[in-house]
């Protein structure tokens, strides 16, 4: 059975930074579990410039 010291769920910005720092210690074992980002075929991804529509800001949310 595989045992590790740390299990990190999510290989995004935070998860990768954390896994990188923790794994600098050769005595420490780290498992990083990433769900995957899907096909990436959304119009928001495929259309140049439209990615800005995903950035959280008042114009994209109902938060004033
Ligand atoms: C279009 C866009 C542009 C941006 N541009 C910038 C920029 O220029 N500069 C900047 O500083 N920030 C930018 N940001 C914001 C930045 O991307 C986020 O603030 C940052 O990625 C958040 O990091 P995080 O680790 O919290 O989450 P994320 O990076 O979103 O990582 C979360 C990870 O967890 C995974 N996950 C979710 N559920 C599960 C599960 N059940 N099991 C396993 N894995 C799972 C996801 O697949 C994902 O990989 C941008 C965001 C967007 C959407």
From TrEMBL:
This is GMC family oxidoreductase N-terminal domain-containing protein. InterPro entries: FAD/NAD-bd_sf, GMC_OxRdtase. Gene3D superfamilies: FAD/NAD(P)-binding domain, Glucose Oxidase, domain 3. Keywords: Oxidoreductase. Belongs to the GMC oxidoreductase family.
């Amino acid at each position: 059975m595989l045992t590790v010291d740390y299990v990190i769920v999510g290989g995004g910005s935070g998860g990768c930074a954390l896994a990188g720092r923790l794994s600098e210690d050769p005595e420490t074992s780290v498992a990083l579990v990433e769900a995957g980002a899907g096909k990436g075929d959304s119009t928001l991804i495929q259309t140049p410039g439209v990615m800005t529509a995903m950035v959280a800001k008042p114009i994209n949310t109902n938060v004033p």
